[in-house]
Amino acid sequence: MSTPLAVTRMQARRRLPTLRKVMIAGLVGNVLVNTVLQGLILRTLIPPLVIILALTLVVAGICATRWHWAPHLAVFWCVLSVVPGLEPYYINLTHPAETGTFIATLLGLALLLVTVVAGGAAIIYGDRQVAEGRAPRWLGGFLIGLATFGLGASLVAAIPQDAAAGVSSDALSTLPALTTKDFTFDQPEIRAKVGETVALRLDNADTSMHYLDIDEFNVHAPMPSGKRSIALFKPTQAGTFTFYCHPHADKAAGTGMVGRLIVEP
């Protein structure tokens, strides 16, 4: 009579807890989203991100084991892996006009949040959750709420926006142009003067989204694929600065889509 009970207990021990399944799904989902981001949207590999994704898969594999500290590791890794990308995350989330990168960034961070919440719950509930084999009741509501928020934000971001709205085509055509084609800026050098407003017409002839980034003057102008947009800024100091496209350049190494902004007194 005791055999079925023993078998049931053994099966419960072998069964992976629901919270761990959620953690694994969040980690693997984040890897898939960022792989699509690099391969289909940005069309370039970001070496630091590739390393982070590989380590994320390792953490997911550890979560599939019975190691007691796996939830702690998953939560710690999710927080740690976000730190190197704080600036790109901020730029992507504050530029919803680039729908692909916005949605991918939002979804990737949401999946990490799911892992953190599930990992925290696993730490709190501990052996009780393992024994019961089910997730807390509130987890379903949290996932539904997060999915609803993500869907709503994605739909809003998908609404077409004209980056040059309110500017006539005649006025736009008179502005000096900076064009991107074949993942290259057509001008390696731009000149300006301190205190004078710079107005550039941005023409993107590529099928991928670009940006005009000049960190020193807080310029992060989106360049939607196949469209025209505008960059307006006022240099406040003289010197030579780097302008670049953050998804397609290594500013520190000076490679990829980079150029020089020379500001004269």
Overall description:
The protein has 265 residues and is α/β, with parallel strands linked by helices. It has 2 domains: 3-157, no CATH class; 169-264, Cupredoxins -  blue copper proteins (Immunoglobulin-like), CATH 2.60.40.420. 51% of the residues lie in helices and 20% in strands. The protein has helices at residues 3-14, 18-42, 47-63, 70-82, 86-93, 99-125, 127-132, 137-157, 169-173, and strands spanning 177-180, 189-193, 198-204, 210-214, 219-223, 228-233, 239-250, 255-264. The chain has a 3-stranded mixed β-sheet with strand order 1-3-6, with no helix packed on it. A 3-stranded mixed β-sheet has the order 2-8-7, with no helix packed on it. It has a two-stranded antiparallel sheet with strand order 4-5. A hairpin with a 4-residue loop joins strand 4 (210-214) and strand 5 (219-223). The radius of gyration is 24 Å and the shape is elongated.
Entry keywords:
elongated; Immunoglobulin-like; 9 helices; three-stranded mixed β-sheet; 20% strand; 2 domains; 265 residues; alpha/beta
SSE blueprint and pairings:
Layout: H1 3-14, H2 18-42, H3 47-63, H4 70-82, H5 86-93, H6 99-125, H7 127-132, H8 137-157, H9 169-173, E1 177-180, E2 189-193, E3 198-204, E4 210-214, E5 219-223, E6 228-233, E7 239-250, E8 255-264
Parallel strand pairs: 1-3, 2-8
Antiparallel strand pairs: 3-6, 4-5, 7-8
Helix pairs in contact: 2-3, 2-6, 3-4, 4-6, 6-8
